[in-house]
Amino acid sequence: MHLKSAVTGFCLLFAVWAADAQAQELGCPNLQVAVDSVAFPEEAIKLGISEGNAVVAFTVGADGEVVGKEVKSATQPIFGEAALAIVSRLRCDKHSLSWQAQLPVDFRLRDAPSPALAEKLVCEEPAAGKFDFVRDAVRLGVTRGRVVVEFNSDADGRATDVVILESTHELFSKYALRFAKRLSCTPIGHKFRIPLSFSIT
Asked: Of 42, 100, 153, 177, which has the fewest CB atoms closer than 10 Å, so is most exposed?
């Protein structure tokens, strides 16, 4: 069998947004984690849009499962999609009855760049053939996965303070950390968030 590893990623400025304060009362302990795990929409950056908002309605079942998710309003469809992604990650407390809720989300891009700067946000990937997770993946029986890493670029453009924000498997976390630490990014002094997809074909 011919196996080939494929690693893809794209660079974004660090995104900061805040859920409405009332949303903290939903009884969903991982609300902030859910918010932090979704990157500011890349399409918005390319369009020069640095802020927006969306409201998502949903139902929390008695077992804490979030169902019936629907975007009620959004300044741009891309913010509605991002807000849906946040709600999809919620894990809420169990109650005797199900209930309906709405989550307003404000999206704000920190130090929003001009379109010209956004186009220059580049990370060079390691040379082909030096990043191979196939052997370990086959041994563990995992053929695809996804990781979101976040880091700062130092004075040399190298990744520092690398953290894993989201991962489908610890194997991919390990390789994502190695991958990020070998990147060379410009401009320097920025915070980057990169989703990485792993697959064996």
From this structure: 100
pLDDT in the model for residue 147: 82
What letter does residue 83 receive in the DSSP assignment? H
Tokens encoding 142 = 């995992």
Residue 190 CA to residue 100 CA, distance in Å, equals: 39
Residues sharing a CB contact under 8 Å with residue 170, sequence separation 6 or more, in sequence order: none
Single-letter amino acid code for the residue at 3: L
- Whether the per-residue pLDDT at 179 is higher than 60: the answer is yes
Report residue 186 CA to chain centroid gap.
20
Nearest of 101, 99, 95, 96 to residue 31 by alpha carbon: 101
Residue 12: the pLDDT is 35
- In the CATH hierarchy, which fold is given to the domain comprising 15-112? TolA/TonB C-terminal domain (3.30.2420)
Q: CB of 14 within 8 A of CB of 125?
A: no
pLDDT at residue number 2: 33
Mean pLDDT of 64-68: 90
Q: Where are the alpha helices (DSSP H) in 131-189?
A: 134-140, 170-181
